[in-house]
Amino acid sequence: METYERVAEGLGMPDEARLMFGLAPQHPAGLDHLGPVGRAEIIQTFPSQSTAAQDIRTAARHVTAIDVLAVRGLGILGLNDSLLRPELIGEPDVPRTLRVLLLSPEGQAAARRAEEINETPESFSAGIHLAEARLRELGTIAPSLTLEVYRYNIFPVWRLITLDEIQYVSAFGQKWEGHESAVYKLAPTPQGALHRGFRRLFEQTRRTAQRII
Asked: Pick from 36, 116, 209, 210: CA 20 to 30 A from residue 149's CA?
C-alpha cells in the first residue's frame, strides 16, 4: 500500500483513481456524490492484531456471520483469551454462522510453513489439531452457532477475519506470524477491488478445502 501511495502521489492521481487502488482520497469532500461507501476501501490500519483487537471484538458483538482464514487460528478462536472466542461464548444464544479455514496439518504447506518460522512439523501440526479440538468444543458451548471448519492445503499468505461485510486483513511473513502483521480494515465499495478480491480468495479456498466439522 505504501508503494501504491507513492505511485499515486508521483502521478498526481485524481481521487476517483486513488479509490480504485484502495487509497484514501486526498479531497474527500469532493466525493460526496459517492456517499460514504463509495470512498476508500481501507478505512483504518493497525500496526498489529493487538492494536486492532478492541475494534475487532466490538464489531464481532453485532454480526451474524464470521469468516476466518488462518493457519492455526489459536490466537483468533482456539484459546480462552483469543480474539473472538470470548465474544462467541459471552453471547451463546445469538444465532451466528462461523466458517473457519485452517491449514491442513499433514500437508506439505504446513511443513513448509513450520520450517519458515523455525518450528518442527510435529509441534506445528499439533497446534492445528488443538485449534480443531477447541472449535469442536466451541460448537457445544454455543448451541446457536452454525459452525463449519475446513482444511486447506495451499501455502498461506493472507490471514482474513470477516465480520459480516467488514474485513480485517493481515499477512503471514517469512519471519513473523499473522498476528504480528499490520492489519487493514476493509469495507466494500463500488469501485474497490481489494474487498472483492479477498472475498473471492476465501470462497475459492473454501471450495477446494476439506470440511472436517
From this structure: 116
pLDDT in tens, the chain (213 residues): 677 778 878 888 877 677 666 666 665 554 444 444 445 688 888 998 999 999 999 999 889 999 999 999 999 999 999 999 999 998 878 899 999 999 999 999 999 999 999 999 999 999 999 999 999 999 999 989 999 999 999 999 999 999 999 999 999 988 778 778 899 999 988 777 899 999 999 999 999 999 999
Alpha-helical (H) ranges within the chain are 2-11, 15-20, 49-60, 85-90, 108-116, 121-141, 194-207
Whether the pTM exceeds 0.85: the reply is no
Report which of 125, 168, 131 is spatially closest to residue 149, judged by C-alpha positions: 131
User: What single-letter DSSP state applies at residue 118?
Assistant: T
Question: Rounded to whole angstroms, how far apart are CA atoms 35 and 154?
Answer: 38
Q: Nine-digit cell at 35?
A: 456517499
